[in-house]
Design brief:
The structure is a single chain. The chain has helices spanning about 30-45, 60-85, 90-105, 155-165, 170-175, 185-190, 195-205, 220-225, 250-255, 265-270, 305-320, 355-365, 370-375, 420-425, 440-455, 465-470, 475-490, 505-520, 530-535, and strands at about 45-50, 55, 120, 125, 235, 255-265, 290, 345-350, 380, 385, 390-395, 410-415, 435-440, 495-500, 525-530. The protein is α/β, with parallel strands linked by helices. The protein has 3 domains: about 15-80, no CATH class; about 110-220, no CATH class; about 310-535, no CATH class. The strands form 5 sheets. A 5-stranded mixed beta sheet has the order 7-6-8-11-12. Strands 5-15-14-13 form a 4-stranded parallel beta sheet. A two-stranded antiparallel sheet has the order 1-2. The longest helix is centred in the first third of the chain and has 27 residues, at about 60-85.
């Protein structure tokens, strides 16, 4: 029976029913095709209003089902895609942006590296013996015999680049054989100094076997380390030897005051009068003074004063002053942006019973050698004036207290106590031992001020812990005034000051003390463990 629709489809005059193909049933049709057949037949019925005759035709069932299913599927997929795209477009955009920056971070920095693919000797011939610091992950010769001029980074950016690409740095440099004509560099002199990380950084700095050949086109290590660094001449790197990169970490932060705690090697403690056995690796010259905080954890073979401080400092200064050795010009210091700024090296004596022995070894075997002494600030005995050079050596801790100041070498200065200077009421610098920067602890200075407040009567010593409990914001006005007066007193003697023992936690309280010390009391140096924190406080 023919079913008429409410809106019948009118057939065009040029369409003949006879021309419409009749679907042929396929053999072996499935159940799905059988169920679809009635629907197809119903859909195939039309009314020809022009002739008034009901005519029925059939669209091929399999073709109709295929077309209908395909169109519905496409329409569904397209609609779903648009819906999901709209729903997750912010997520997709975020993923694309993050991916972009990851790619840029990974591959753009190496583009800053020199494009030279081969190094040349001073006479212009190609040097084929250079070994690369970087593996082929970033391409060959990214940091090659062109020296350490290739990468356009310095300071903390340089350190961040090194840390980011640490896995890419080749270990071949540490194990490569030195050429016969190679000059001593940081790696060959230190030879596994502090840690694998430290040694890789040294190798990273020198970049090739001829890194210190002083060619005109080469940048100095000082420039690489500090070119874009602003010197912080008010910060002392407390326990500098504890850092992953002693000396270098401070320089890249802009800090010009560092510290090494020294101990006499046990090999010499047993009998300090014996001759040194240079054939014994644990008893040679370079291991005489070990560097560390705790006697039980010393490693004099690798972590000693010569490896961690004397050699690196001398090599940096030799390089930056190579062209000035035979001139009367002032020697350059360790900061590229302020070549006249001296760097302070505190030597902290840890053995009071051996202080004089350690002092003699320090002065005669380390500081007093001609190649190193020329960089040291000294006090002219004739004029009684201080002649400043790139390094200032200050003895602190349990150093020997000589009554005759002339027993001290002219190139060493003493870390005198601020409170003792105030209490002794010293009038002139000539009345005190040679000094440039003096210090005291916050606890001792506060106890002094408490005593002053009580009319110099004996009072219960103030512990720093109890002080923190009652000073949750800052120092009060009376304490500030007393401490300011004490600092001003020693400043009038021509001395700079450093206050140590400031609580490190909570951070907001530490930062409050730092600001009061620098701004209100006008102290010259902060005693800092957190170098990153002092950059932003």
């Amino acid at each position: 029976m023919i079913r008429q629709t409410e809106n019948p489809i009118e057939m065009s005059d040029n369409i003949s029913v006879d021309n419409i193909p009749v679907a042929q049933e396929e053999q072996g049709g499935g159940a799905e095709e059988d169920e679809a057949a009635p629907l197809s037949q119903e859909a195939g019925k039309v009314i020809n209003h022009a002739s008034g005759v009901n005519k029925e035709f059939r669209i091929p069932e399999d073709e109709e089902f295929r077309i209908s299913s395909s169109e519905n599927e496409k329409s569904s997929i397209y609609a779903g895609f648009r819906k999901n795209l709209k729903k997750y477009r912010m997520l997709i955009i975020s993923v694309v942006v993050i991916t972009f920056f990851i790619v840029v971070d990974k591959y753009s920095l190496p583009l800053l590296v020199s494009s030279n693919n081969s190094s040349h000797t001073s006479n212009g011939t190609k040097n084929t013996n250079d070994s690369n610091i970087y593996s082929d992950e970033f391409g060959a010769n990214k940091f090659n015999g062109a020296g350490h001029t290739g990468i356009a980074l310095s300071g903390l950016k340089l350190l961040q680049y090194f840390d980011t690409n640490l896995d890419s740095i080749s270990t071949k440099e540490l194990n490569s054989k030195k050429s016969k004509n190679q000059k001593e560099d940081l790696t060959s002199k230190t030879n596994f100094v502090s840690s694998y990380y430290y040694d890789l950084f040294m190798s990273f700095l020198i970049s090739s076997q001829n890194a210190l050949s002083f060619e005109e086109n080469k940048k100095t290590l000082v420039e690489i380390l500090t070119r874009d660094v602003t010197p912080l001449n008010y910060v002392h790197s407390h326990n500098d030897y504890w850092r992953t990169l002693p000396v270098f970490d401070a320089l890249m932060h802009g800090v010009n005051s560092i510290e090494a705690d020294i101990w006499l090697n046990n090999s010499y403690v047993k009998n300090v009068s014996d001759d040194i056995d240079t054939d014994d690796e644990s008893s040679n010259h370079k291991t005489m003074l070990a560097v560390g905080h705790n006697k039980d954890y010393l490693d004099p073979i690798h972590r000693n004063l010569e490896n961690l401080y004397i050699n690196p400092l001398q090599i940096l200064l030799d390089e930056v002053n190579q062209m000035r050795e035979k001139t009367t010009e002032k020697l350059n210091g360790l900061f590229h942006t302020d070549t006249g700024m001296p760097t302070i090296l505190y030597i902290d004596f840890k053995q009071p019973e051996l202080s004089e022995t350690v002092y003699d070894i320090l002065v005669n075997e380390y500081l007093g050698t001609p190649d190193f002494q020329k960089y040291l600030t000294y006090k002219d005995q004739e004029t009684n004036q201080i002649v400043f050079n790139p390094l200032i050596i200050i003895l602190t801790g349990d150093y020997p207290r000589y009554q005759d100041y002339k027993k001290y070498a002219e190139f060493v200065f003493l870390d005198l106590d601020i409170v003792e200077l105030v209490q002794n009421n010293s009038q002139t610098a000539t009345e005190i031992p040679p000094a440039i920067v003096v210090s005291t602890s916050l606890k001792k200075l506060l106890n002094h001020c408490q005593s002053e407040k009580n009319g110099n009567e004996k009072s219960v010593p103030l512990e720093i812990e109890s002080f923190v409990e009652h000073h949750l914001v800052s120092l009060n006005e009376q304490e500030l005034q007393c401490m300011t007066d004490s600092i001003g007193f020693v400043n009038a003697l021509g001395l700079k000051t450093r206050i140590w023992g400031v609580p490190q936690y909570p951070v907001y309280l530490r930062n409050s003390y730092w600001k009061q010390l620098l701004i209100d009391m006008k102290s010259d140096y902060l005693n800092v463990d957190d170098l990153d924190g002092v950059l932003s406080f």
